[in-house]
Design a protein that fits this description.
It is a single chain. This protein is mainly alpha-helical and 153 residues long. It has one domain (18-134). The protein is built from four helices and two strands, in the order H-H-E-E-H-H. It has helices spanning 34-56, 61-69, 98-101, 110-134; strands at 77-81, 86-90. Strands 1-2 form a two-stranded antiparallel sheet. A hairpin with a 4-residue loop joins strand 1 (77-81) and strand 2. Helix 1 packs across helix 4 (110-134). The radius of gyration is 18 Å and the shape is globular. Residues 1-28 are annotated as: Disordered. Residues 3-151 form the DUF7992 domain. It comes from Halosimplex carlsbadense 2-9-1.
């Protein structure tokens, strides 16, 4: 069943080094093009991705209410990974020690935590897909270093 929710405001992208995330898989780069990505999000990429995601998400209205209450949508990060020529992202999520933290009164099961974390990850990927398919036309100019080893003929 689709999630009946209006798209929230797109996240404001902060200057964060993606290599600092626990699950980082980004080659060090200094131009993450966040300003341009943030503008694309405002220009409709966020709304389009959210609406597509909401049609097929496994997140319930109750799960989504927790996401809204905890301001998780605002904590997404998107950046250009020039090495892989892709939009990278970091989705917010609920911590493993959610029970001890007592972060929300309606958060009462691992199933809810899993549904929220999976749903946010799926939304992040959908945003990346929309950005790459419909907005971004960048090509990374990569030059191999001159000092690569010669492995013979």
């Amino acid at each position: 069943m689709p999630l009946d929710a209006d798209p929230p405001e797109p996240p404001e992208l902060e200057t964060i080094d993606p290599n600092e995330y626990e699950d980082a898989q980004v080659v060090d780069d200094t131009d993450y093009r966040r300003d341009e990505i943030e503008q694309y999000l405002r220009d409709g990429a966020w709304d389009r991705a959210f609406e597509t995601w909401a049609e097929d998400t496994g997140m319930s209205a109750e799960d989504y209410a927790i996401v809204v209450d905890l301001d998780l949508m605002e904590r997404f990060d998107f950046f250009w990974d020039s090495y892989a020529e892709r939009v990278g992202y970091h989705a917010p999520g609920l911590p493993e020690d959610w029970k001890q933290m007592d972060i929300h009164p309606d958060l009462d099961s691992w199933g809810t935590v899993s549904a929220i974390n999976a749903g946010l990850t799926e939304l992040g990927q959908e945003v990346c897909d929309v950005l790459k398919d419909d907005y971004i036309e960048w090509e990374t100019e990569y030059e191999a270093p001159d000092d690569l080893p010669d492995f013979g003929e």
